[in-house]
Design brief:
Number of strands: 14
Radius of gyration: 25 Å
Shape: globular
Largest sheet: 7 strands, antiparallel
Length: 385
């Protein structure tokens, strides 16, 4: 029996005094990050040795607390400060791995100094001795018992909890738990595997059905434009500007929540219905730089693919990424001829007739070709199952 680490997120409602203590924790964690980053950058410029995380902790936490200008670091849990240092160490490790091309994810730059932004977070590990009380509250050191809205039970005893404040002023508790990995019952491969052709006019075309594009951003665009216009007219530093900024952030938060919920529901349904899925490896960043960039961002294609891949891995489904240069749209699914619509002008063509006489619907033909190519990859033994 195998286990997998998951995140369970819940909305929390700290009191006014608890929000003030959390603000201190956010600020202290940010200061420790910036102090440690400054020391490492200075050491690099001077050609000195790289300090270990233990040495950095002694300088920016232990010794800093003895200084009058940093004495307030003692007002928050030491675990929060140590977690900030570990995050900096991880950021440097990812940067060096990216430089050496040993990191699978996209390349990233070196760590940067943190500013007071809309989203803030601090992490409490087991060393902080956080706990869930008998009346269902989250007990945090030097903060107190926070009210939690439990939407589901925790799968196991959490190893850490991250308190997040988003740009809309909402607070969340993100628990890391270890859950039992339970693959779904196997389905008939030939009958349930599907290609997934992602698009703009239709969100996705699968075998036998379509997913209509919800266009969450487009629905709220008029309301968002009005709120942003009001924000731009407010005097900087005024209370009205703070309220207008919060209004804009809440609209964006609602759009993001709707998009995540939609993707989570659709990917869960696909995993339950399909034994294998074949998705085109789209260059989403490149697509977003074009004239349809706003619509590409609204679709959340990269989030959809990542979520689907993670769920397939957890529930025992086969997930295949078809090469982005595979001509799924231009290829005739009957005779194999490459005479379909091409270029920017071809984007408007929804149906086309091949020289062999077959009439194709653009997206359905692409799904069939992706399914055929995915099966070929699996048969060749290159599938990551």
């Amino acid at each position: 029996m195998s286990y997998v680490k998951l995140r369970y997120n819940y909305r929390v409602y700290p009191s006014a005094s608890q929000r003030q203590e959390l603000a201190k924790a956010f600020g202290c964690a940010r200061v420790v990050w910036n102090d440690a980053l400054r020391i490492r950058q200075d050491a690099y410029k001077q050609g000195g040795p790289v300090l270990s995380i233990v040495q950095l902790a002694k300088l920016v936490i232990t010794e800093a607390k003895k200084m009058p200008e940093r004495a307030w670091l003692g007002d928050v849990s030491a675990v929060v400060l140590q977690s900030s240092l570990r995050d900096l160490q991880t950021a440097y490790s990812n940067f060096f791995a990216s430089k050496k091309d040993t990191r699978k994810r996209p390349k990233i730059g070196p760590p940067r100094f943190k500013k007071k932004a809309g989203r803030q977070a601090v992490r409490f590990t087991k060393a902080a001795r956080f706990s869930v009380t008998t009346d269902g509250r989250l007990r945090l050191p030097k903060i107190g018992d926070i009210r939690v809205r439990w939407s589901r039970e925790l799968a196991s005893v959490p190893s850490s909890v991250t308190i997040v404040k988003d740009a809309a002023g909402r607070f969340f508790a993100s628990f890391v738990v270890e859950a039992e990995d339970r693959p779904l019952p196997e389905l008939d491969w030939e009958e349930t595997d599907t290609g997934i052709d992602l698009g703009l006019s239709t969100y996705a075309v699968l075998r036998g059905r379509k997913i209509i594009s919800p266009k969450f951003f487009r629905r709220q665009e008029k309301k968002l434009r009005r709120a942003q216009r009001k924000l731009s007219r407010c005097t900087k530093g005024s209370n009205n500007r703070r309220k207008a900024k919060l209004t804009v952030a809440r609209i964006h938060a609602r759009i993001g929540d709707q998009r995540r919920d939609f993707i989570d529901q659709e990917t869960t349904r696909i995993v339950r219905e399909s034994q294998a899925v074949y998705v085109e490896d789209l260059n989403v960043k490149g697509m977003a730089r074009g004239r349809f960039g706003k619509s590409v961002h609204d679709q959340g294609m990269a989030m959809f693919t990542r979520t689907l891949e993670a769920k397939c891995a957890r529930y025992g489904r086969t997930f295949i990424k078809v090469d982005r240069f595979f001509p799924s749209t231009q290829l005739c699914s009957r005779c194999g001829a490459l005479n379909g619509p091409r270029g920017k002008a071809g984007l408007k063509v929804r149906t086309w007739r091949c020289d062999c006489g077959t009439m194709h619907h653009r997206d359905q033909n692409a799904e069939y070709n992706l399914r055929t190519e995915g099966r070929r990859i699996v048969a060749a033994g290159r599938a990551d199952t």
